[in-house]
Malate dehydrogenase (Halomonas alkalicola), 325 residues
Amino acid sequence: MKDPVRIAITGAAGQISYSLAFRIASGDMLGKDQPVILQLLEITPAMEALNGVVMELNDCAFPLVQDIVATDDANVAFKDADFALLVGARPRGPGMERKDLLEANAAIFSVQGKALNDNASRDVKVLVVGNPANTNALIASCNAPDLDPKQFTAMTRLDHNRALTQLAQKTGKHVTDVESMIIWGNHSATQYPDIAHCKVAGKPAAELVERDWYENTFIPDVQQRGAAIIKARGASSAASAASSAIDHMRDWALGTNGQIVSMAIPSDGSYGVEPGIIYSYPVTCEGGKYEIVQGLALDDFSKQKMKATEDELREERAAVEHLLG
Ligand SMILES: NC(=O)C1=CN([C@@H]2O[C@H](COP(=O)(O)OP(=O)(O)OC[C@H]3O[C@@H](n4cnc5c(N)ncnc54)[C@H](O)[C@@H]3O)[C@@H](O)[C@H]2O)C=CC1
Ligand SMILES: O=C([O-])CC(=O)C(=O)O
């Protein structure tokens, strides 16, 4: 039997966590042989609702769950955490862009960055889901000077997975036939879903679909999928966001076997992107580490799209300069 790992989830009484916590508890993230201790954080007014979630987790009698901690104190929630999924933040409503949440949510991530710095395992892997996810991850990282910035990531895996399905459906193939999808940049309407390096059942994707569909349907549909879900459901994506968070953490921890996935990570200047901002790149993962895929050829269309989303991230960073520690 492996030693249990500690997994902190914030916003644990919210809608994403209502799927996320149960799937992690059942072994979907780290495997059916990995015991877990769940450390659940909520704000004080939501503690009663969180208690209900804990009751339900207990009622599932999950074999892998060794303990459940429910708290409104970030220092307790992050104590010795090996993984931290920062979900707790206000979601957007109809007509809002994710960066409209910057002011409402940014303060949460400076406090939680400090609490991670002071309490988490020195090897903690942090995934920020709460929007605007990239800049929130930057705020958390800047407030955690004793942790390596590379330990702070943000989620663009949902965009990546959305893009896989759109392309698979268009080409009449299955998602597992699609390789080397890339989401560049911000988890926002400026993100650049890039199929230039993508293959579908071994054939270059760009040769299988019309350029007009790619530029005028695929890209905007992936960029706007979150808004489409809000319009349809009256609430933002929850189960799909939880599923992608699990994909992100599982791949980071257990590896991708050479497959390319998209993760928003601190830029090291690769592809000319401003160092330090949390930018989504194509990566492969092995041995608990991710590495940016280097040497991809970029045409002018790609360069221009990558620059637009980088510019937005620089603007978001400037807007929260006072929270960057
Ligand atoms: N990166 C991505 O791909 C996606 C990100 N999101 C974002 O995830 C976030 C959460 O979404 P939902 O679960 O639908 O929202 P929700 O409103 O259902 O749940 C959020 C929970 O966070 C809690 N919370 C607020 N401040 C907190 C704090 N300081 N510490 C701990 N908990 C706190 C709230 O009490 C609430 O229970 C939103 O910002 C949403 O926009 C949603 C979908 C995809
Ligand atoms: O769109 C939103 O606000 C929620 C989200 O990030 C997504 O579904 O991609």
Q: What stands out?
A: The CA atoms of residues 279 and 306 lie 10 Å apart. The first helix runs from residue 15 to 25. DSSP finds eleven helices and 14 strands in the chain.
